[in-house]
Design goal:
By secondary structure, this protein is mainly alpha-helical. Helices cover 56% and strands 1% of the residues. It contains 14 helices and two strands, in the order H-H-H-H-H-H-E-H-H-H-H-H-H-H-H-E.
Length: 322
């Protein structure tokens, strides 16, 4: 019977790609003691490189429209409202202990939606979109997801009823064609770090530092001109640049990490990230906290925030989309 056919619930994405990141992680930075270690390591590295190259080939499918950065610069889309939403998403990510990937996905969904549809120019619509995108990202990546009411913390001006957020989720899902498994910089960081640190001596630090830089870069609309693989490569280059033992690592060498990396794209993104890290680019307080502070400072910042006044509780319907 037609009513029993659940095929309409399936999205059109290729399920095989869902395991790219797991395969890459399993194929890199491995250890072995038997005699054929070198041979197996070469095979695993080749397989991982092929998977990463395939990710690079498909990353444009999960990016905002190409004119989106220019529309933000020209203020056709309010860049301040976007910056406030990114800052709020990162605050909630820290407060709830979400993965960095969750925050990145939420911003990715928001940018892709804004590049396709115009929201009413009053604050509640943008806040509803930010809450909705974070909810969707948490459902994609987190094992424990707060309720929709508990998710609305950290200085939210409005509180939306769960049914309003769920209706907005459907609008976002439809606009994004249900393509939520975005290609992100975090899919490349481990692989790139293993290229510069094959023995794994400084891998943990490099991955953590590169992750901080990517989260901070989300505030800056100039990074929207760069694809996730270039951002990952630039972040790893900046992280290695802080350590004398990796002084020889540079963008020219980075393009050899994998097929598909463009030297000019990596170089220009690297320059932007260097400016961000050095403080030469304007950054919000939240960006500085994420990018430049230690884990201890981040914890104290998130715990010492003053309690905002009780938000006004308003029932809102999803904004019209055009």
């Amino acid at each position: 019977m037609p009513g029993d056919d659940a095929s309409y619930l399936l999205c059109a994405e290729d399920a095989g790609g869902a395991f790219f990141f797991a395969d890459v992680a399993a194929s890199t930075c491995t250890t072995a003691t038997d005699d054929d270690w070198c041979s197996r390591a070469e095979d695993e590295e080749s397989a991982a490189a092929s998977l990463v190259a395939e990710l690079i080939g498909g990353e444009a499918d999960y990016s905002p429209r190409s004119d989106y950065p220019d529309r933000l610069r020209s203020r056709c889309i309010d860049p301040t409202a976007r910056a406030d939403s990114v800052a709020w998403i990162l605050k909630v990510q820290q407060y709830c202990g979400f993965l960095p990937l969750t925050a990145y996905l939420a911003v990715n969904y928001m940018d892709r939606f804004l590049s396709l549809h115009r929201l009413p120019e009053d604050g509640w619509a943008m806040q509803l979109l930010a809450v909705t995108c974070l909810s969707l990202a948490a459902k994609m990546e987190e094992t424990l997801v707060p309720s929709l009411l508990d998710l609305q913390i950290e200085s939210t001006r409005y509180i939306f009823e769960p049914r309003t957020i769920l209706r907005m989720e459907l609008l976002v899902l439809t606009a994004l064609n249900w393509r939520l498994r975005s290609v992100t910089p975090f899919m490349f960081i481990d692989f790139f770090v293993c290229k510069v640190d094959p023995r794994g001596k400084d891998t943990r630090y490099l991955i953590g530092r590169a992750t901080q830089m990517i989260l901070a870069a989300m505030h800056d609309i100039e990074f929207l001109d760069h694809c996730p693989s270039s951002m990952a490569a630039a972040a790893v280059l900046c992280a290695t640049g802080e350590m004398p033992s990796f002084a020889l690592v540079n963008p020219r060498l980075a393009v050899n990490w994998c097929i598909g990396l463009a030297e000019e794209g990596v170089r220009s993104c690297y320059k932007l990230m260097q400016q961000l890290v050095s403080g030469k680019r304007a950054a919000t307080a939240a960006a500085v906290a994420v990018n430049l502070c230690s884990d201890e400072v981040l914890s104290s910042n998130s715990s010492s925030c003053t309690t905002p006044p009780p938000p006004k509780r308003r029932k809102r319907s999803p904004p019209p989309v055009t």
